[in-house]
Amino acid sequence: DAGITQSPRYKITETGRQVTLMCHQTWSHSYMFWYRQDLGHGLRLIYYSAAADITDKGEVPDGYVVSRSKTENFPLTLESATRSQTSVYFCASSEDRDGYTFGSGTRLTVV
Amino acid sequence: GENVEQHPSTLSVQEGDSAVIKCTYSDSASNYFPWYKQELGKRPQLIIDIRSNVGEKKDQRIAVTLNKTAKHFSLHITETQPEDSAVYFCAKGGTSYGKLTFGQGTILTVHP
After folding, report:
1. Cβ distance B16 to B80 under 8 Å?
2. Would the CB atoms of A45 and B45 count as touching at under 8 Å?
3. Distance between CA atoms of residues B62 and B11, nearest Å
4. Do A30 and A95 form a contact (C-beta atoms < 8 A)?
5. How far apart are CA A59 and CA B94, in angstroms?
6. Residues B92, B30: contact at Cβ < 8 Å?
7. Which helix (H) or strand (E) holds A48?
8. Per residue in A21-79, pLDDT tens?
9. Quick one: which of A31, A61, A69, B5 has the fewest CB in 10 Å?
10. In angstroms, rounded to a whole number, what is the distance separating the alpha carbons of residues B18 and B38?
11. Do B98 and A96 touch (CB under 8 A)?
């Protein structure tokens, strides 16, 4: 689905650096989400947003910051990357409590 | 009340056999239960979903059943094919802000 895009697809960064993962959707969906996927843990919710300027923490928010100044964008920032944040990150959007549509994911490696 | 337990974690079947994956939950508020399929290196994709006012839903070779009293729901795949090999995730939601809570995933392998 070209309607939700993530960038970059792959990123290698060093411990302690700040890195931002981008997510953009073209449907004007109200709800947007960030998940991380790790072996043995499935998909865990980091942050979510119900509308522009409304965000809230999920299950594993520590070390992450989000913003949503526009409905279509929901960037995720790692303030000071740690090796434990090496993961695949998926952004998703939905409307009216329906199922999600996921982006293609960002594979982040922290060295 | 947040977790979803998914079983089995791995499932291996012969082509043409049926596959069943089961998920259980404990809260009473959830009323939306989707299933996602994730092929290797790709994004999870919604394959079927069910809401709490329905007990069963079918779409060709896949079906989902829901028992709200017992708090479990299952994915059934009939006449499996090698292209069904993937990781399958159940999820529950329908409560606050459209959040979904996912199960741990089942790795399904269909042998030709």
Report:
1. yes
2. no
3. 16
4. yes
5. 17
6. yes
7. strand A42-51
8. 999 999 889 999 999 999 877 899 999 999 999 999 999 999 999 999 999 999 999 99
9. A69
10. 19
11. yes
CA gap A63, A74 in Å, rounded = 16
The answer to whether A108 and A88 have CB atoms below 8 angstroms apart is yes
Contact status, residue B64 vs residue B77, Cβ threshold 8 Å: no
Burial bucket for residue B68 (CB in 10 Å: 0-12, 13-18, 19+):
middle
For residues B7 and B10, what is the distance between their CA atoms, to the nearest angstrom? 8
| Look-up of token digits 């998940």 | A35
Here the tokens at position A39 are 């072996």
Residue A97 in this model has a pLDDT that exceeds 70:
no
Contact residues on chain A for B45, CB-CB shorter than 8 A: 102
Q: What is the pLDDT of residue B92?
A: 93
* Total Cβ atoms within 10 A of residue B79: 11
Residue A30 DSSP symbol: S
Q: What is the mean pLDDT of residues B82-107?
A: 90
In chain A, the residue whose alpha carbon lies closest to the alpha carbon of B98 is A97
Alpha-carbon gap, residue A88 to B51, rounded angstroms: 29
